[in-house]
Specification:
426 residues; alpha+beta; Rossmann fold; Dna Ligase, domain 1; D-amino Acid Aminotransferase, Chain A, domain 1; six-stranded antiparallel β-sheet; four-stranded parallel β-sheet; 12 helices; 22 strands
């Protein structure tokens, strides 16, 4: 019997997950709550209105797939799982993302490689620590900050300003009541994502994203300005090290602590420059965005089978996921001014252009108005994604597609270097 899917969320990640699930022979209909201008069957209620989500899912025979972190950390799985199938971790397991101090203590207790760190609830004590260390530092808001609560500091002045921004000026609200100060690591960042049922974890394709707003990784951190898959810096030996020493260890330790983790587990890793050792920079308890977009483009297997296996605890009975050997590249088109102040409500032109069969436009910050026009509604607007025979082809095709889309040269922005300097395998 076919099932319906209810995707909770409105971003490019949710559009990509729904697009992939809609291709399954086991899926009848995909609904989105609330979705965006590029998705169909959109529901008007909030991602945290758990009672309405639950009622709709029961009435329409839906499996609920939760995309973003907010409903997960607020306990949507706890609320829904007694009566319907829902994919994602519980509120307790989601602390791996909702509290950086929790995650760092968890890694320390379970010997999972991460940077040295200290946590502070007093800004003056945090500043004293900065004054008295000669190490390069990263300052992080403890709670959720939409990917913007991390400050990579080049000097003490940067670090002190970061503390003021988070703890004094409260730019991230209560998420900045506690901060984590950690030693800065140098190397290459990689996104490693697995799908877990609490006992078993199956790796997804590797990916890398570009977090900084400007070319050459300059400027403020964002939710992600583009991504590509696979990563070309992960050798086979390093891949199995990450699986065994980080991903499996995380899942087994969470189970041992009576917090079994079900859903997508994302480890943001730094492959340290000198040793090539992987260190966990952060956990996310959901699929990455924009990493999801190229990963879904490369996935040959039926995603529904693995979602179902994760919920039922039967991932160990499934074969490894099959992936296309062709790489994929995603270019994020954003409103100019993001991640700070930016406009909304601009009409997007060119979405019906003659894109190639290897191109998919995933919507994020868009809405459809009463005249069926697509308007910008957020900072990150579109994820223009291409799969190609090699990185150069995928990248070229993605940028050719970007050039066909327009909502005003003074309003739109995208990086020009996504996937440009893809490094060879170690």
């Amino acid at each position: 019997m076919k099932k319906n899917i209810l995707i909770v969320g409105s971003g490019g990640r949710e559009h990509a997950l729904g697009w992939k699930l809609s291709k399954s022979q086991s899926v009848s209909m995909v609904y989105y709550c609330p979705g965006n201008g590029g998705t169909n069957n959109n529901l008007s209620f909030s991602i945290t209105d758990f009672s309405k989500i639950k009622s709709f899912a029961i009435k329409n025979n839906c499996i609920v797939v939760v995309g973003p972190e907010e409903p997960l950390t607020k306990g949507i799985v706890n609320e829904l799982s007694d009566s319907i199938s829902v994919f994602g971790p519980t509120r307790e397991a989601a602390q791996l993302e909702s509290s950086k101090s929790f995650a760092k203590q968890f890694m320390k207790q379970n010997n999972i490689s991460t940077a040295e760190f200290n946590s502070f609830s007093d800004p003056e004590k945090a500043k004293d620590f900065v004054y008295n260390t000669n190490k390069s530092l990263v300052i992080k808001a403890d709670g959720l900050a939409a990917g913007k609560g991390v400050f990579v500091c080049d000097n003490k002045e940067n670090a002190l300003n970061a503390i003021d921004s988070i703890m004094i000026r409260k730019n991230f609200g209560n998420s900045g009541n506690v901060i984590v100060i950690e030693e800065r690591l140098f190397g290459e960042e990689v996104s490693f994502i697995g799908l877990s049922d609490g006992n078993t974890i199956i790796p997804m394709a590797t990916a890398q994203d570009h977090k900084r707003i400007y070319d050459n990784d300059k400027g403020l951190n964002t939710g992600g300005m583009g991504s590509f898959s696979p990563s070309k810096i992960i050798s086979n030996d390093l891949f199995y090290d990450i699986i065994n020493k980080i991903m499996k260890k995380t899942i087994h330790s969470m189970k041992k602590n009576s917090n079994p983790f079900v859903g997508f587990l994302y480890a943001g890793l730094m492959i340290e420059k000198d040793t090539q050792k992987p260190y966990v920079l952060e956990y996310n308890v959901r699929m990455g965005d924009p990493e999801c977009q190229p990963i879904m483009m490369r996935m040959n297997s039926d995603l529904f089978d693995y979602i179902k296996g994760s919920i039922s605890g039967t991932l160990d009975t499934l074969a490894p996921i099959s992936w296309s050997e062709n790489p994929a590249v995603c270019i994020v088109m954003a409103e100019k001014g993001y991640p700070l102040n930016h406009e909304k409500g601009n009409v997007i032109h060119g979405l019906n252009s003659n894109f190639g069969h290897n191109i998919k436009i995933f919507h994020a910050g868009t809405v459809r108005d009463n005249n069926n026009k697509i308007l910008t509604s957020g900072g990150r607007v579109l994820g223009v994604t291409a799969i190609g025979s090699d990185f150069d082809r995928a990248r070229s095709d993605a940028y050719d597609a970007v050039k066909k889309i327009y909502w005003g040269k003074d309003n739109q922005y995208y990086r020009k270097d996504i996937g440009l300097n893809v490094k060879p395998t170690i």
